[in-house]
From TrEMBL:
Protein name as it appears in the record: NADPH:adrenodoxin oxidoreductase, mitochondrial
Organism expressing this protein natively: Letharia lupina
EC number annotated for this UniProt entry: 1.18.1.6
UniProt-annotated location(s): Mitochondrion
Transmembrane segments: none
Amino acid sequence: MAVIGSGPAGFYTAYKVMSSIENAIIDMYECMPVPFGLVRFGVAPDHPEVKNCQDRFEEVASSPRFNFIGNVAVGKDLPLANLRPHYNAIVFAYGATKDRKLGISGEDNLKGIYSARDFVGWYNGLPEHEALAPDLESGEEAVIIGQGNVALDVARTLLSDVNSLRKTDMTDYALDSLSKSRVKRLRVVGRRGPMQASFTIKEVRELLNLPSVSFEPIDPALFPPNAAKLPRTPKRLTQLLAKGSSTPASQARKSWSLDFLLSPRSFNASSATPSNLSSLTFLKNKVNGPDVFDSWATVSPTTSEVLYPTSLAFRSIGYKSEAINGMKDLGIDFDECRGIIPNDLHGRITSLSEDGTGIPGLYCSGWVKRGPAGVIANTMEDAFDTAESIAKDWENKEPFMSGTNGWDALQEDAAARHLKPVSWENWKKIDVAEKGRGKAKGKEREKFTSIPDMLEMLD
Ligand code: FAD
């Protein structure tokens, strides 16, 4: 079986299939020379415990029935159609490689606007964002559009004392840039109210507990009057937000706020330097009844506007999956609207046209299966679900594809294309080198942030 992508979805699917189907052999393709997807390039550096799932992935990779083929982007370096004749099954687990856009004026042409995905990739050493160089020095104000947990990761990174991050695996260039940051006042803006917000309690609590950082009180009218009677989770969140931060504004080094019921309308240019962002206009929203405190309540725009002056803004409204080249030739119609591969909800890829029947041997897992939301635990459950479908189909002798030689049969093709596949042993060399570089600086790891640097140390 080929698995495309080495994030949690790829690894958990591989793990479960290998333990359910005796003698199953897995070839895992990964476009980066290094494994683990968003566990390496997304999860915040100050949350190292989240990365413990890598221990399980290491166990999977230690099996003789597992091959890691890094530095090979399927659909780009190696055509999908060339994989097909050599496997019984292909699992698409390639996550979400793009981010969603707002589609408002100024978004694409003003300096000072960054996508949270790019910023997160930058501080985590994702090679494509190494050169981002976000301008954190021009102003004291910053605005994050979006109130999910990724937005709160970005907020924590901007508000934390940089010295508290120095022992993490955050890249040196990001630490250097953050140490020069002038950002003092941060707004995290969402289009709904606090009772409909998508962040979680743990992440808000962390921000409220940051030393020397104050939190601007939220308008009490946004909370239900009888909060004590709410179910456990909204009750705890309401109490937490109402309590706020223990640092009074007068003693704070930096401050932040959660600004609710605002939809971005335009990014505005500076009159002095028209290529630079100088402010953001938002349209005020109201929550629709009957119960304005219901977590599912929708919002609609009013005609009032608010203007926030800022030269720095982050767009954090979600990631997005895309089709990879050659899917159509395999009969897969990527669902552009939902940003997922059409499937039977259990990972069997189905055709969008005709009667939506399954396509033998083709499966999907993780964010590309159900959309880019959910923590690693959700992705694991989802991957196990796909693996169970595969095991069941195998046991029931459902039709699969007929190839069985896998990577052995593809190596000549890869060599003719001058590809430089990275094996698990080679990744371990990169791993050891990164940990060594980190140790010299008192850090957990100093990542290589360019693909040539990763490969150079393997020569
Ligand atoms: P990914 O992790 O994105 O893995 C996909 C892999 O496929 C990547 O390695 C990619 O390089 C590879 N790939 C892409 N295209 C190709 C191709 N053509 N050929 C070969 N390989 C390809 N969850 C938590 O539990 N705790 C957290 O603290 C947390 N923090 C997060 C912070 C951020 C910023 C983000 C975005 C997510 C966070 N999550 C967190 C969620 C978690 O990261 C996801 O649930 C999980 O990573 C999704 O797994 P996946 O395998 O579907 O995708």
